[in-house]
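Contributing new records

If you add data, match the layout below exactly. Sequence lines come first and carry their own label; structure lines follow with theirs. Keep one chain per record. Anything else will be rejected by the validation script.
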Amino acid sequence: MSLLSVSDLTLKIQKRTILDNVQFNLQPGQIVTLIGPNGAGKSSLIRCILGLQKYQKGTVTTQKGIRIGYMPQKMHVEQSLPITVDRFLALGPKSSKAERLTALKRVSVEHIAHSPLQNISGGEQQRVLLARALLNKPQLMILDEPAQGVDINGQAELYQLVKSIRDELGCGVLMVSHDLHLVMAATDQVLCLNHHICCSGHPDEVTQNDEYISIFGRQETHPMLAHYTHHHDHTHDLHGDCQHQDSNSKGHNHA
């Protein structure tokens, strides 16, 4: 049975279609990366899955009693609020001090446990949010742009960390990215969303493709970044409407 099944999900806000008949499944131990441009509906889809947004049509089904660890895009901290990293984690899922320290160690930031939340770096903030998601002992992790605001080397490290956590826990992972050019080499499936699922498939392994190398560098430089090739049977006009190609039209690569 799938950890998560989304079927014919349609969301309209003020007569504007945000999501149109979106459907996909996520299996235990699988990493699915959701990519697409800004405004494509990625965050809205996450909100629907989490039960935070009502939708007009379709279903979202999860395994009964599933534990979900959610990592938002970023945290907003009031500068005048005196709160440490440990205290912030204590506001989340019920946990002991030892469990919180273990979660911070798992993401390699245990040294900031007693630091003011306002004083830590952007990369450390992302790891704290990931630690918070881990406190729920998740069977499904939903990560909304986990590498936002992190440099390219930090992104590679964070993606490797997510992969190792998946391997350790055997959990499923739904991860969101806005970047159509880069996906993780560890991703099992990529979904390209632009209000509907444009295409889906496995990311390509890093190759010696000249075009890829000219943009991203050689594999040794950024081993966690992969080039994703997929094929559309349609294009979008300036209004986002579909224009279907004929059967002889070739797909294209994002590079």
